[in-house]
């Protein structure tokens, strides 16, 4: 078994209203930044042991689908880094 760090980026799906992103965008405009869109998400890191990177990615995908993301409103992607 090898050790891997999974990185899961979870964010709202396109078309889902993002009130926190809209509030942040307004503040950025007040601060005179030329931002055109802000989407707020979360970054989750999990250290696991797996046979290989392919299995680690499959585990991360299952974690995202079953617990770490709301499939109705959120999308996620997984990165795998060997440790």
Question: What is the gist of this entry?
Answer:
The protein is an alpha+beta fold. It has two helices and three strands; from the N terminus they run E-H-E-H-E. It has a three-stranded antiparallel β-sheet with strand order 2-1-3, covered by helices on one side.
Account of the 3D structure:
With 83 residues, this protein is of the alpha+beta class. It has two helices and three strands, in the order βαβαβ. The longest helix has 16 residues, at 53-68. The chain has helices at 19-30, 53-68; strands at 2-12, 41-50, 74-82. It has a single domain, classed as Mth169, Chain: A, CATH 3.30.1280.10. The protein has a three-stranded antiparallel sheet, covered by helices on one side. It is elongated, with a radius of gyration of 16 Å.
Write the layout of secondary structure elements.
Elements: E1 2-12, H1 19-30, E2 41-50, H2 53-68, E3 74-82
Antiparallel strand pairs: 1-2, 1-3
